[in-house]
Every structure is written in structure tokens, then in C-alpha cells.
Write a structure and sequence with these properties.
The chain is α+β, with helices and mostly antiparallel strands. The chain folds into two domains: about 100 residues; about 130 residues, Sandwich (Tumour Suppressor Smad4). Helices cover about 15% and strands about 30% of the residues. A six-stranded antiparallel beta sheet has the order 6-5-17-16-13-14, with no helix packed on it. The protein has a five-stranded mixed beta sheet with strand order 10-7-11-12-15, with no helix packed on it. A hairpin with a 4-residue loop joins strand 11 and strand 12. Helix 1 crosses helix 2 and helix 1 crosses helix 3. The chain is globular.
Length: about 260
């Protein structure tokens, strides 16, 4: 098989130009699959990079981290070369992570993966109102009503907390620090949040800085599939379904449900 880089497949590119070329070839291969008008359905791309710390400067330079929009122009040029009609406002993000999430298109030669953001082909439009019920642990309320108008609905220990940069975060679903309930023990002050996504027609759960390994955990188990989903990255959310159970830390449990006719 012809080797594009003239080196063994296991040998990594050693300079910025070679890394950039490898990334663009990888993206180009995926773009070629979108010929025939499929590109217009793309919302954007997320490029996940799990390189060694000593290699990070190579990858940052390769994707023009300090020059906003430049790497996007390179990808747009590839799309134009293959007459792939991407929408006007598509986006691309480069994210450095300790390990690659499972549900990515992965490169064979580098610890790099691509996530292509597309609208669901058949969106089930849920109610824009939902109910969160506390099954285990002690929050300020036993039940919460949330709506699409609420914006970012923070979940964590204590109502108001200060983050590492000094800003105040308000947890709408707050677990008091003073509680002796064992379920509250491993809940972080910045554990997770929920927000409405109009394109998906659903509420999406995200882990925050205090809710991802190795510090902590957020898991979801649906009524249809008893294999729990663990959120290991803050960038990738999980669409919530009727009856989902959300585990915060070791044993605090929330139950999610949509409200069809809120009173």
C-alpha cells in the first residue's frame, strides 16, 4: 500500500509541517465521504488530540492554536477542492485530552480522533420542561422543575461556590455541605450541568471540571439500556431520555423525566 509520508506507519511525524499534513489528510479522507451534498448537514468538527505532553507544542502549532480561524480555512480549502458544500457557519475545535473518547473516528498513526457534529436525522422533539427528582442524597429540594429558558442549570455541592479563577458559580440543584447524608459526600462544587439544546430537541447533561476522572464521576443509566454511560470529558454531553438515572460521585442519584403538560 502506498505510504503518503514515505515512512513506516508506526513512525510519527516529527515536525509541525508533517503533523499538520497528517491531520489534514485524515480530515480530507473523512470529507471525501461527504461528497454528493452530504456536507451541508455538517454543523462542525471536534478534533481530539491525546498526544504526549512533550509533543503538545507540535500539535498546537499544527492546528494554529494562536491564530483563530486559520486551521478552519485550511479545512475549508480541502472541502472546496472536493466540491463538498459545507454550511456557511460550520465550526472546528481542537481539544487536547488525556485519552480519546470511544465514539470518535480515530487516526491509525496518531492519537487523534474526529467527531463530526450533525443534527439528528430524525429528531424526537421533547417537551422543553423537565423534572429532576432526587432519589439518593440530600439536595435543597426533593424535586426540581427545569425549562429550556433556564439556560445552564448547574449541579453541585452548595448553592454558591467560587471557582479557581475567583468567579461565583450558582448551583441551581445544590447539595448542602452541612448535610450528613452519605450520598452528598463525593459531590463536587462544580460537578455537572444540564442545558437545553434546540437542535437536538433535548436536554443535554455535561460533566464539569469537578465531575470527571480522576477527581470524580458522572454516570447515566437509561431505562432501555442498563449499561451505564460514564462522562469522562467536559466537552461531550449526553442527551437525556425519559427515566434516565444520573449518578453523581459514588451514590447520589437523580432521576430525569420530561413534563408533557407543565401546570
Amino acid at each position: 500500500m502506498f505510504n503518503l509520508f514515505g515512512k513506516e506507519p508506526s513512525e510519527k511525524p516529527q515536525d509541525v509541517k508533517a503533523v499538520r499534513e497528517a491531520l489534514l489528510v485524515f480530515i480530507k479522507q473523512e470529507l471525501q465521504k461527504l461528497e454528493g451534498g452530504e456536507g451541508k448537514h455538517i454543523k462542525g468538527f471536534q478534533l481530539f488530540i491525546a498526544c504526549l505532553p512533550v509533543e503538545k507544542y507540535l500539535y498546537e502549532s499544527a492546528v494554529f492554536m494562536e491564530e483563530e480561524g486559520r486551521f478552519r480555512k485550511e479545512v475549508q480549502r480541502l472541502a472546496d477542492d472536493f466540491a463538498i458544500d459545507l454550511p456557511e457557519h460550520w465550526t472546528i475545535e481542537s481539544l487536547f485530552v488525556p485519552e480519546l473518547p470511544a465514539d470518535l473516528i480515530k487516526m491509525a498513526s496518531l492519537e487523534v480522533g474526529l467527531y463530526i457534529k450533525t443534527p439528528e436525522h430524525a429528531i424526537v422533539q421533547h417537551s422543553e420542561t423537565a423534572k429532576i427528582r432526587v432519589l439518593n442524597g440530600e439536595a435543597e429540594q426533593a424535586e426540581y422543575l427545569i425549562t429550556s429558558a433556564d439556560g445552564k442549570i448547574n449541579i453541585g455541592r452548595e448553592r454558591k461556590v467560587q471557582d479557581a479563577e475567583g468567579f461565583i458559580r450558582e448551583n441551581k440543584i445544590a447539595f448542602p455541605d452541612s448535610s450528613s447524608n452519605e450520598g452528598n459526600k463525593y459531590i463536587s462544587r462544580q460537578h455537572a450541568h444540564i442545558e437545553w439544546n434546540k437542535e437536538a430537541g433535548a436536554f443535554i447533561l455535561f460533566a464539569d471540571e469537578g465531575g470527571v476522572p480522576p477527581r470524580n464521576k458522572v454516570k447515566i443509566r437509561s431505562t432501555a439500556d442498563h449499561n451505564p454511560v460514564k462522562l469522562t470529558f467536559t466537552e461531550l454531553g449526553h442527551p437525556l431520555q425519559e427515566g434516565d438515572q444520573i449518578i453523581l460521585g459514588e451514590s447520589a442519584v437523580l432521576e430525569f423525566s420530561y413534563v408533557s403538560n407543565p401546570s
